[in-house]
Structure formats: C-alpha cells, structure tokens
Design goal:
rod-shaped, 286 residues, alpha/beta, 5-stranded mixed sheet
Length: 286
C-alpha cells in the first residue's frame, strides 16, 4: 500500500465521484478506477458500493478514510520537518570525557539549546575507548575525547587545548622525590581511561609502584582524597580551575611527558556534511 493510493481514495470520498476526483487531481478517471480496485484487493474489503453512476462509501470505507486522512496529514508534517526554511531538527547523541563535559561544555550546551530548541540533545560521559566504540557502532553521533584520533572511518577537529597535571597532597614538601609517590595511593578512573594509561606508563618507566591503585570515577572524590593526604592523581588542569582549588588544597606538578592532552571533536566520516555536527562544533568554537 502506498500513500498515493490513499490520497486517491480520499479524493474520491471528498469529491463524490471518480470523475470529480480525477478532475481535482488532474489525471484520467481510468487511472483512479484501477488504483481503487487495487486498494480494495489489497485490503480484501469493499470500500464503495457501486450503484449505477454513483459510489456510496461503505462503513469499512469510512474507517479507512478517517485513518488515511490522518496518515496523509502526518506525512505532510514529516515532509515539513526538513524544509530548508524550517528549524534544525533531530535526535542528537553526544558523548564526552567527564572532565571535558564539566569543565568546558556547560556554556556551549546552553547556547546550543537556545539556538536549536528543536534538536533533542542527549549527552553522556564515558571514557575515551568506550566513546570511540559507541561512535563507530552508531550509538553516538559525536564525541569529545582526547586525541588526535586516527581511524579510516572517523574525522576530527581540535576542540580544546588541555593540560594534565600531577596532583599530590599539600602536606608533602614542595620539592618531592619520585620515591615519595610509592608511599601514596594512585587515584584514577578505570583501566580504559587514557589518563590512567599515561600515568601508569610514566610510573612504570620511572620504576615507581604506588602503594595501591584505587578506581574513583569522580574528579571531586579524587581531589578530595588527594587534598586529605591519601594519594596522588593525574587530572586535567581545567578540572582544578573549575573546582577553584588553591595551593592549600593540593600541590600541582607539571610533568613534561604528561603535560599536553588536547581534546578533539570526533565524528564518523559518513557524517562529514551533517548540519547538526557542524552547528554544534561551530557553536563551541565561536
């Protein structure tokens, strides 16, 4: 069954005869007669009683007309969704690193919602490996993750310049030795976190083994534990700025090998011309 068939059927009901419907639709009556017969055959239902030159709609025809009319009106609404002059619409799924989402994105998300109220924006946080996997699987349309990401199916552009710093308890001497880190616990996210990979590789290359490695998936909890003298961590510097931490809360140490970790917008190459992605990125860099 096609919308065109239903449209012809509705035209017959509204104009009273096949000839009048044909005149209204600017087509030949025989074409409408054939389409009406096909529709009745498909539905296995008589839609009109034929009496001489008249068509009298049946009860089945009336219920079909009610539903067909509603369906045709909704089909017109669907066409209007993507009219060139219409507001941008869509159901848009974005994933971001937790630190990026809390430190960089709030104002951009607010601006985007104001500018594009018809876009259903859904945002969640996760680690970089999970974000990339969900992007490739189609569960996400855009991710904001550390990079750059080199993948034949993905495109990316720089989103934010980000620096990583080692944070240690304020009670430690201002000039600490690496051996002191072995007396402390390492607070970090799960193993799929790229920041964890970086700090663990750096510790291993310097033959440092923390007292324990504790997974705490919250920067607020991590910085609180470090501030209390319980351990150390590697975190984005923007997180500390957001939390307004000062030297009395934690000490920060910049490690050259760990200092830079820029953040990128990443999307599937098949979406290179997506208006939703372009608008979101443009909002963020404007």
């Amino acid at each position: 069954m096609k919308l065109h068939q239903l449209s012809l059927f509705c035209a017959i009901v509204e104009n009273g005869t096949i000839a009048a419907a044909a005149k209204k639709l600017n087509c030949v009556p025989s074409n409408i007669t054939i389409r009406l017969k096909q529709l009745e055959d498909q539905l296995d239902t008589k839609l009109f009683n034929r009496e001489k030159n008249r068509l009298l709609i049946t009860p089945q025809g009336r219920i079909l007309y009610r539903n067909a009319k509603d369906l045709l009106e909704r089909s017109m609404d669907i066409k209007k969704l993507f009219n060139k002059n219409a507001e941008v619409r869509g159901v848009f799924f974005i994933g971001a690193l937790d630190g990026v989402l809390s430190a960089h994105m709030p104002s951009y998300i607010v601006n985007h919602r104001i500018k594009h109220p018809k876009v259903e924006l859904n945002i969640r946080s996760d680690n970089s490996l999970s974000l990339e996997r969900d992007l490739l699987d189609g569960a996400l349309d855009l991710i904001i993750s550390d990079g750059p990401i080199e993948h034949p199916l993905l495109s990316s552009s720089l989103a934010f310049k980000e620096s990583l710093v080692l944070i240690v308890p304020p009670s430690l001497p201002e000039t600490i030795t690496l051996s002191l880190l072995e007396t402390l616990d390492l607070y970090t996210f799960r193993k799929s976190c790229s920041y964890r990979h970086q700090i663990e590789n750096w510790l291993s290359s310097n033959h440092i083994t923390p007292n324990m490695v504790l997974e705490m998936e919250s920067y607020d909890v991590i910085t609180a534990c470090v501030s209390a003298g319980l351990g150390f961590s590697l975190v984005p510097e923007s997180i500390l700025e957001k939390q307004s931490l000062c030297k009395h809360d934690v000490q920060t140490i910049k490690i050259p090998e760990l200092n830079t970790n820029d953040v990128f917008f990443v999307w599937r190459k098949s979406d290179d011309k997506s208006d939703l992605i372009y608008d979101f990125i443009s909002e963020s860099v404007s």
